ISNCY family transposase
Amino acid sequence: MRKVSMATRAELVAAISCRYVLGGRAEKARMLDEFVALTGFHRKHAMRLLRGEREPAKGGPRPGRRVYGDDVRAALVVVWEASDRICGKRLHPLLPTLIEAMERHGHGDMNSETRRQLLTMSPATIDRVLKEIKASATGPRRRKGSTAIRRSVPVRTFSDWDDPAPGFVEADLVSHSGPYARGAFSQTLVLTDIATGWTECAPLLVREQTVLITALAELRKLLPFPLLGFDTDNDSVFMNESVHEYCLRDNIELTRCRPYRKNDQAFVEQKNGAIVRKIVGYRRFEGLRATRELAKLYSSMRLFVNFFQPSFKLKEKHRDGAKVIKRYHRPATPYQRLLDDARTPEDTCLRLKAMYLTLDPVRLLRDIRLAQERLVEIADKPDGSPATDGEALPLEDFLSGLRIAWRGGEVKPTARSKPAAKRERRRPDPLLAVTAELEEWFEAEPWRTSRELLERLQVKYPGVYPDGLIRTVQRRMKIWRSTQANALVFGPFADAARQTQIVEVVQ
């Protein structure tokens, strides 16, 4: 059973091999016992490694060990193709039945020795023999990322948080891809403290691990407490050697949630919607300009949310049959929770109090609205041209506007949907030249069908109006029939509406 990784085994061999060679019999026995217990190697294999003997190369060709000849391999390819290219584990139990059925219908031309060797192949050998064939036929398989890092990171569920000190955060990425997730687009790194709900956000130009580490280093400077724990999902942008080594170097406890269990990260998932999506919205943001505007937005948003936005925190939860009863603490801001926590140092409390006295919530809200307007302008530019830098309203005007802002409905620019473009006719009207003539025919014989009127046009103008125009004629006659019905009920008062409808159809 493997107890340590292969890399660690190699490091152990390099570290103690010299001492093993120079040691006495008793010391060698003691070192060998410890090495075998730690690595799980066979004792003889461990002795050879520590003596410095060359370890046999892994992989590659094995000369002299080839058992199956070219005729067996060729027969295997035929059988594999006849099975519709299934894998070796599924093909192995099928071989006797498939070979017998092929020979019964005259499709097999292999001799008895080839058949015997083919039936004795193991599933692993079948896959190994077909490896190059599969690669040339269907292309090389996509290699999955290494799971060694993921296996080495412990799992932490929602119930495992037991009143941690400020500094243990959950992290997640929020994508700003808009309606389609192709190409490069901005991402937002969100950190949420478990104890206080303190939330920090930073935009990422691209989804890449070194960019994420840089953003994380900048966010650590803004946090009012040291970063003690970093809990993430199983995304490869978190589960990699760069992030793992960064956390080890700075003594940060790295944990992860269970795959496909978003409730394990309930704290940060709630902030993804309540903060990022509520303030930034769902538009697509890409490029340097949009990322810079996101950074400006987050610089004001972090102060407004952490100092002036109370939130609930679950106190207890119990189940009574099918009913779940939850009780919450009194709503408080992350700033208030941090001051009330006895584990917060005194100098941190003094620094936060001094910062709080300098903050103006109205000014922060005005700056947030201005940044939102710039982001919307950048995202909604149809030609990709740079947005113009808007000027902030004077604080007095913005404050007076808050009194009547409710009359305009939604005030967050990023929450308003993009205005739909007016749909216009995309090609010229094919019946423009004969519309009046068609209408005369309809008024003279209103019982005629659209197909009859189109056939009459085709007779009068051969080769000009194809059968594909039947839907256009039907839509035109639908308006005329509606107008005729209105005229029968309302008389001449429907003439104006009739003329308006015809103009809209022609346009």
User: Anything to note?
Assistant: The chain has 21 helices and seven strands. The mean pLDDT is 85.
